[in-house]
């Protein structure tokens, strides 16, 4: 069994949750924040049999989209940054950041 951790943008989270239900994939979602943008994203935790990992990855890939976003560093980062870095900058946010870990044990009581 594997644990798939998928960090996606909030805009894609509801659709992805529905896709998992439709495909009988059990998932837990939690509200998270990116360390860089400090804005909300969503992390799905999916415990899944090894052979279904490619299916999960494909569904995430199809559903989660990369987007560009403008951010003003001074508004969202430490004020210790120099004034020259306060120009709005474009950030490409990936469709999904995915980690896959081995699950040593799985219990449901
Ligand atoms: P954030 O940390 O808010 O990052 C949002 C986007 O900002 C990133 O998109 C990346 O394109 C950009 N970015 C991040 N750090 C940067 C930096 N130091 N300089 C310039 N641009 C930077 P993604 O790479 O697609 O990441 C989307 C979200 O996935 C991240 O939100 C974070 O919540 C998570 N993430 C990405 N890599 C991770 C990792 N290695 N470990 C844990 N979480 C990760």
From TrEMBL:
Instruction: State the organism of origin.
Output: Weissella diestrammenae
Which superkingdom heads the taxonomic lineage of this protein's source?
Bacteria
Report keywords, A-Z.
Receptor
Does the keyword field hold Glycosyltransferase?
A: no
Classification of source organism: Bacteria, Bacillati, Bacillota, Bacilli, Lactobacillales
Sorted alphabetically, which InterPro entries does this protein's record hold? CdAMP_rec, N-reg_PII-like_a/b, N-reg_PII/ATP_PRibTrfase_C
Q: Does the keyword Cytoplasm apply?
A: no
Protein name stated in the entry? Cyclic-di-AMP receptor
């Amino acid at each position: 069994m594997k644990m798939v951790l998928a960090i996606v943008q909030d805009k894609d989270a509801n659709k992805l949750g529905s896709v998992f239900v439709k495909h009988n994939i059990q998932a837990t979602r939690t509200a998270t924040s990116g360390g860089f943008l400090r804005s909300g994203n969503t992390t799905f935790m999916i415990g899944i049999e090894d052979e279904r990992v490619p299916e999960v990855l494909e569904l995430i890939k199809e559903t989660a989209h990369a987007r560009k976003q403008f951010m003003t560093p001074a508004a969202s980062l430490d004020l210790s940054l120099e004034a020259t870095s306060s120009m709005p900058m474009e950030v490409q946010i990936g469709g999904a950041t995915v980690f896959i870990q081995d699950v040593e044990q799985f219990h449901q009581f």
